[in-house]
Every structure is written in structure tokens, then in C-alpha cells.
């Protein structure tokens, strides 16, 4: 189990990410604490989820996008899908010589950023599939959770629609998310990224 929540408003983006990451090491699956936020300049970032290699691929994608000097998140999304598809294919060809494809290879990527073309913030979800195309993606509306936490999504969608500010939305997210470990054997370790007109900042 590995959690991510992302929401977008007129004022910016908030992503909550569980820093526990699933890894296959020495013949067994383990959870490692791993930084899974990667900045793309000052106006965008990528968050990874799932298998450890997702974080490595996200880091490479963030570097690639920054080197390409793309300043619009809409264009970043198209470039990120193409780049990640190639890197994912290379990883799977190499890795599956060691262990077969199974659910532990599940990966997700969330790209969030600003588009000067429409002066809005946008969020995109990219995930891997068992059939072609191996990576797919779509734009996120106001809020999305992995795995799906429908009650939380409805709550956050409502307060976004009410025009709550970023601090108020973050407070609701933190209150709800940090109770997850009280109900399950698995306890997430949350990190948060906030992207708004002041730039990108990270909170624990």
C-alpha cells in the first residue's frame, strides 16, 4: 500500500505523498523511506508512487524536462509521457530478466504545474498498464487519490468549490490523511508539496 493525494485550485496545487516506497531487495519486498518529489524548475514538479523505480524514473523525467526548457505544464505532460514510456520500457526489459512482471511493478506519476497559455494550474496522472500503451495518462479535475479515497475526494472537492484558501485545504488534507494509520496496519509517512505563485515548498 502506498498513498498519494493531489488537488488543484485556481490558486495552486497541493500534493500529499507517502514517502514509503516498495522495493525488491535481496529476494524480498521491503518498504524504504524515499523522497518522491522532484522539481521541474520553479513552476512544476513530479511526484512518484508505487514501485521504487518510479522515483528514479520521475527524477530522470524532471531533469529531462528542465533541460528541454519547457515552461508550460501542458507541453511538459506530452513530453513526460513520451520520455517515461521509453525509460519504463528499458527498465522492464532489464528488470524482468531478474523477476517476472507482477503487481509490485505498479507505478504512478503525478505532474503538476502552471500553464502561461491559460494562466491556470494543471495536474496530470500518468500510470503503467499491463497492455499497450504501457503508460497512459489524463488530466486530474480538482482532486484525486491513490488508492481511491472517495470520501476524502468529495470533502476536498467541496471545500475547493467553496473557495477555501490553500492553507485551509492543506489543514483538511493533513487532518484526514494522518488518521489513515490509525485504521490500518500500514502507517504512511506523509510529505507535502505546495505549488503556488510564490513557488514550490515542501512540508512534513
Descriptive account of the structure:
It contains four helices and twelve strands, in the order ββββββααββββααββ. It has helices at residues 52-67, 73-95, 150-161, 166-177, and strands at 4-8, 12-18, 20-25, 28-33, 37-40, 44-50, 107-115, 120-128, 135-140, 143-146, 190-196, 199-203. The model has no long low-confidence stretch (mean pLDDT 87). It is of the alpha+beta class. It is 31% helix and 37% strand.
List keywords for this structure.
204 residues, alpha+beta, five-stranded antiparallel beta sheet
What secondary-structure arrangement, pairings included, does this model have?
Blueprint lengths: L3 E5 L3 E7 L1 E6 L2 E6 L3 E4 L3 E7 L1 H16 L5 H23 L11 E9 L4 E9 L6 E6 L2 E4 L3 H12 L4 H12 L12 E7 L2 E5 L1
Antiparallel strand pairs: 1-2, 1-10, 2-11, 3-4, 5-6, 6-7, 7-8, 8-9, 11-12
The percent of residues in helical segments reads 25-40%
Radius of gyration: 17 Å
Report the principal-axis shape.
globular
Structural class: alpha+beta
The parts where pLDDT drops under 50 for at least 5 residues are: none
Beta-strand share of residues: 35-45%
The number of helical segments is 4
The biggest beta sheet is recorded as: 5 strands, antiparallel
Mean pLDDT: 87
Number of strands: 12
Précis, in short:
This protein is of the alpha+beta class. The chain is 31% helix and 37% strand. Helix 1 crosses helix 2 (73-95).
Amino acid at each position: 500500500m502506498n498513498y498519494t493525494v493531489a488537488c488543484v485550485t485556481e490558486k495552486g496545487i497541493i500534493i500529499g505523498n507517502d514517502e514509503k516506497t516498495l522495493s525488491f531487495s535481496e529476494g524480498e519486498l521491503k518498504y524504504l523511506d524515499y523522497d518522491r518529489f522532484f522539481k521541474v524548475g520553479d513552476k512544476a514538479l513530479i511526484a512518484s508512487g508505487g514501485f521504487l523505480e518510479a522515483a528514479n524514473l520521475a527524477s530522470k523525467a524532471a531533469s529531462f524536462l528542465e533541460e528541454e526548457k519547457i515552461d508550460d505544464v501542458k507541453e511538459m505532460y506530452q513530453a513526460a509521457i513520451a520520455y517515461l514510456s521509453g525509460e519504463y520500457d528499458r527498465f522492464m526489459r532489464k528488470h524482468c530478466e531478474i523477476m517476472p512482471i507482477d503487481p509490485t511493478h505498479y507505478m504512478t506519476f503525478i505532474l503538476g504545474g502552471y500553464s502561461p497559455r491559460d494562466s491556470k494550474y494543471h495536474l496530470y496522472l500518468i500510470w503503467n498498464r499491463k497492455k499497450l500503451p504501457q503508460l497512459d495518462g489524463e488530466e486530474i479535475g480538482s482532486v484525486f487519490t491513490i488508492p481511491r479515497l472517495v470520501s476524502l475526494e468529495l470533502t476536498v472537492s467541496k471545500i475547493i468549490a467553496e473557495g477555501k484558501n490553500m492553507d485551509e485545504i492543506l489543514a483538511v488534507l493533513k487532518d484526514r490523511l494522518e488518521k489513515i494509520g490509525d485504521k490500518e496496519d500500514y502507517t504512511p509517512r506523509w510529505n507535502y508539496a505546495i505549488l503556488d505563485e510564490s513557488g514550490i515548498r515542501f512540508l512534513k
